[in-house]
Specification:
Chain lengths: 101, 242
Amino acid sequence: MSGKYGFGGGIELPKMDTLKPRLALDQGALKDAVEAGTTLGFVSREPTTAKRKPGPKRTEAQDKVSIPGPKRVIDQFRAFCTEQNVTLWEGLDLLLQGRAR
Amino acid sequence: MYVITFANPKGGSGKTTSAMLLAEQIALSGGRVAILDLDPNANILGWARGREEAGRSLPFSVHARPQIEDTVGLIDEMAAQADYLIIDLEGSKDQIVTFALSRTDLCIIPMDGSPMEARQAAQAVRLVETTSRMIRSPIAYTLLFARTNAAFLTTDERDVRQEMESNNINTLPVRIARRAPYTRIFRDSVLLAELPDLVAEEMKGKTASVTDKAQKQVASAIENARDYAQAVIDTLMKARAA
């Protein structure tokens, strides 16, 4: 060891030239491992849907509407907004503008 | 390349600190090290950014969390640039833990010895054993008592140790005690090895006994980190030889 406080010494590391190359991972086995992990509670925590971008600043009068309806229609509308990368009201606005043309 | 992963679904168990201490000791001893920071809190990335902003060099490269399905590919790519890849995982039951474990040589499961953390550590052990079985390849693991009291063993820790011994669960022979120099690493984006000079500068004008006390605290932290890192390497070698 060297230095005023004896901090110069390191730890003993193995020689790297004896290390065998890593074998490729079997993708099927990995899939099984991920499935088994899921049963132990280790699940995907990645965001499932992209966050909708915030709308513009509210410079005009605001109102709201709740639209109960068949799930397939609501799902289609949500999918349309996601595809266009717009908020729900912007999606509605787009559709209304399309009708006006 | 050796892959050493730090996992415990319980947050705050000492994964990031243990990973950083190990990375520094290996790098200072001449090993090529890379860290993969898979924790969304990205404390190690923040530490690296802090060093860059302060104009300090990085003794090892730090890589950010990829898309979950790219994890295995990224780990394998790093074999060209590092001898040791250290992976810091998130303190939650995230699927990315399984992906990282599938390429791991040694999984270290830090915990403070409390019953709560021991239960979470047991879940990490189960995941390591299950993943190892599924990929048909051994994954060595060891528990590490971290953030413990340097002066004595608590009754909680003694109780947890007893259960682990009766179940033949491997435990690293060195504990990492809770110490101020370990938190300072992240606070000031410094290395443990830089602390003696920093403390000497800060202690200018103070009495010899005050300076000595501060330096002894740093010296104990460095000695603990070095003993711990050597124990990790010894465990890794034992696992490879088995």
